[in-house]
Design a protein that fits this description.
By secondary structure, this protein is of the alpha+beta class. It has three domains: about 70 residues, Structural Genomics Hypothetical 15.5 Kd Protein In mrcA-pckA Intergenic Region, Chain A (Roll); about 90 residues, 2-Layer Sandwich (Pseudouridine synthase), CATH 3.30.2350.10; about 100 residues, 2-Layer Sandwich (Pseudouridine synthase). Helices cover about 20% and strands about 35% of the residues. It is built from eight helices and 18 strands. Strands 8, 9, 10, 11, 12, 13, 14, 15, 16, 17 and 18 form an eleven-stranded mixed β-sheet that branches. A hairpin with a 4-residue loop joins strand 1 and strand 2. The chain is elongated.
Length: about 300
């Protein structure tokens, strides 16, 4: 009996597992019009996921009730041409990516380079020219890590209007100059922007927008420290300003006090973003592994 296809017309073909089976025989059954080698290639290229978890194991043991999703070839080809980010998650409402340092989130008046936004717009339009994506939040060009985009304007508004309440965890990793002495700390100030578009802290209550940053030291040596940073507020350049405020600017951040750039990028990475899903209301948690150089430099 051929498994039931549960989703048509999207970037994936999805099938419900109705009886225990190994993954490769299952795929050969649902893609009976393809050769064995073609099906094996699709699996090897990472186009197959089970319950939203990608796998390349031919003998993966499937259980009844699980869902197998197969990324369509034309979409896979487009994904292979994406540069500067990888897709961590996609459903009908959102797309979550891991952005690399150096890629703009979205074009601005001065820079019209290829952006995460422009590439994702091309990606969703493979399915339909009418499809669009919407920016929910941004990361600085030289900051890497987790970003979420909405697939329609209503979802975007729901996320943005309720951002403070629905976001349950927003963590960064910061590689900073010098040895941070305290194991944990909190930085609180009021941020203002100068005429030259540089953010700075004011200790005077009400003088700007309130910003609160919590940090915890992971490891350090005589030159660098690696910190886990949690945002209580999300202000422009908040972490960069606050790290400079405590005398430990982020590596590579010349704008905010850094004197070194041995890693050839900004030492800031958005590692975790967890929020209530706009459709289901359930907690959705996404994590992007730390750049290896962060840990290497701070050992």
């Amino acid at each position: 009996m051929r498994p039931t296809q549960t989703n048509k017309g999207s970037n994936h073909e999805t099938y419900k597992v109705e009886e225990q089976n190994e993954l490769l025989p299952f795929l050969l059954k649902v893609m009976e019009n393809r050769s064995r080698n073609s099906v094996k290639s699709i699996l090897t290229r990472g186009q197959v996921s089970v319950d939203n978890v990608p796998t390349t194991k031919h003998n993966y043991e499937l259980q009844p009730g699980q869902t197998v999703a197969i990324l369509k070839n034309k979409v896979a080809a487009k994904v292979n041409n994406i540069s500067g980010f990888t897709i961590l998650h996609e459903d009908k409402e959102i797309i979550v990516i891991n952005k690399e340092a150096g890629l703009l989130s979205i074009a601005n008046a001065k820079e019209k380079d290829v952006t995460a936004y422009s590439q994702l717009m091309d990606y969703v339009r493979i399915e339909s020219p009418k499809n669009r994506i919407f920016v929910v939040h941004r990361l600085d060009r030289d900051t890497s890590g987790v970003m979420v985009f909405a697939k329609d304007e209503m979802v975007k508004r729901k996320l943005q209007d309720n951002w403070k309440d629905i976001v349950k965890e927003r963590s960064y990793l910061a590689l900073v100059e010098g040895t941070v002495k305290k194991l944990k700390g909190t930085i609180s100030s009021w941020l203002r922007e100068s005429s030259t578009l540089v953010m700075y802290s004011s200790a005077r209550e009400g003088d700007g927008v309130h910003a609160v940053t919590h940090y915890e030291k992971i490891q350090s040596n005589s030159s660098y420290s690696l910190l886990k940073v949690n945002l209580e507020t999300g202000r422009k350049n908040q972490i960069r300003v606050h790290m400079n405020d405590i005398g430990h600017p982020i590596v590579g951040d010349k704008k905010y006090g850094a004197t070194t750039n041995t890693i050839k990028r900004l030492g800031l990475h958005a590692s975790v973003l967890a929020f209530e899903h706009p459709k289901t209301g359930k907690l959705a948690r996404f994590e992007a592994d730390a750049p290896k150089v962060f840990k290497q430099k701070s050992k």
